[in-house]
Amino acid sequence: MQKSHSRYFIGLDLSSTDKLAIANWRDKQIFAATDKPVPVENFHITLSFLGQVPQNKLEQLEMLLDAISTKSVNTITNELGVFSKPKILYLGVELTPSLQQLAKQCLGINGKLAFPSPHEVYRPHITLNRKHAEAVPILFEPPKLELNFTEFHLFESVSSSKQGKPPHYPKRMSFRLE
User: Fold this and answer.
1) Helix/strand/coil for 178
2) Contact of 140 with 27, CB cutoff 8 Å
């Protein structure tokens, strides 16, 4: 049986301190029984979802990622929201000029590799919970955290072999920001 291509995305990894601060806030404020909390180690900001990447395109992908040139990214968490169709509760992130520039370059890689564009409008966020019950009102003020990034990563989305267990996202390559 031939192994299917691995699924990848380009993203920013939060510091351990920021991940714990978000998780502690979430665990104190949001307790809807139907939600599936995202594991703390999976907190990240996606810049571009690539999907399945054939092995023969990984070298080209690495060259394109290595060619990205932008300054370090500074942003803040600024809203709590829901993507209703996938039932995702998220912590929104301000689309600062540095984040927008980096995301635009990462999204451009999809076109250069002939991968579909993941979305029409880029909305940076950190997924907090899956299967969020929309009937649960969002009455909480989100934490205002300043997030700083000096590198971005190519992550692989690795599904769990156990039913109901969330995937994990190991970093496969890392790239410095100026």
Assistant:
1) coil
2) no
Number of helices (H), then strands (E), in the chain: 3, 9
In sequence order, the 6+-apart residues with CB closer than 8 A to the CB of 18 are 43, 145, 147
Render each residue's pLDDT in the chain as its tens digit; 178 residues: 344 568 999 999 999 999 999 999 888 877 655 578 899 999 999 999 999 999 899 999 999 999 999 999 999 999 988 887 778 889 999 999 999 999 999 999 999 999 988 777 899 999 998 876 665 556 678 889 999 999 999 999 998 777 767 889 999 999 999 8
The Cα 116–Cα 154 span in angstroms is: 17
51 φ/ψ sector (left φ>0, alpha ψ -120 to 50, else beta): left
**DSSP three-state, residue 57:** helix
pTM: 0.91
Q: What is the DSSP string of 101-169?
A: HHHHHHHHHHHHTTPPPS-SS---EEEEEES--TTS---PPPP--EEEESEEEEEEEB--SSTTPPPB-
Give the pair of three-digit tokens for residue 61. 């992908």
Which stretches within 48-95 are classed as H helix?
58-66
Partners of 156 in beta bridges? 8
Of 148, 178, 168, the closest CA to residue 12 belongs to 148
